[in-house]
Write a structure and sequence with these properties.
Strand order of the largest sheet: 1-2-3-4-5-7-6
Order of helices and strands: EHHEEEHEHEEHEEEHHEE
CATH class of the largest domain: Alpha Beta
Structural class: alpha+beta
Strand content: 25-35%
Number of strands: 12
Number of helices: 7
CATH architecture of the largest domain: 3-Layer(aba) Sandwich
Mean pLDDT: 94
Distance between the termini: 36 Å
Largest sheet: 7 strands, mixed
Length: 260
Amino acid sequence: MEGLLVRELRGWEEMERVVDLQRQVWGRSESDLVPRGLLIAAQDEGGLVAGAFWQGEMVGFVFGFPTQDPGLQHSHMLGVLEAYRGTGAALLLKRFQRDWCLARGIRKVVWTFDPLRGPNANFNLRKLGALSRTYLPDHYGPMSGINAGAPSDRLLAEWDLLSPRVYTRIYAPPPEAQVAGLPQANRVEGEVPLEARLDLEAERILVQIPEDWGRILKEDPALALRWREHSRKVFGHYFAQGYAAVDFVRGPNRYVLAKG
């Protein structure tokens, strides 16, 4: 993370760079881009638009806006150029967002993410300490770029900024969760979901997702739709039973759901 700088953005030129980053990070069509005018207006009314800079070049950004609850911010986008993923830029942007929000009396941040993208789930739950207990089917409708090819189902991440768990995760992350012996709510072979188990009652359960959702979206639309329908059924059922997604483990990609 040495050499990276995060700060609020200034002026329309930097906002236009955020628009360009949206194209590069997600491959979005023009209709899916948040335009610079809206970014400027949101910032004027109390929103956050911050950038991550490497040697003077903006390589990532975060955009959040106020909600009807003055203690809650909705974080609409966080994006980092592929070449700078793994550098800590995304984590620095979220640390900056947390500090910025707390300085203004905001105690909670929420955002949505694709439940089948393992790197996003790992970052949100494992590294940031967020949790999710809300499943949003086809939340944004048809999308372009890297999200094209399947309904835009999303999980709602909840980030309690004053939680000791959040502070620990972003500054001194614990070892990976121990999940040996936990029951799994679905059966998967290779990259194919075969069976959903909806009868589990353990305090903690696992839900497996694909290893490479991006590849499936590009190469196998039928399998992508099958995964969407499968995960919608599994998450929807267990969230309705009082479970929340609280952690994530890799190899294979699995959510840890906890009751209560």
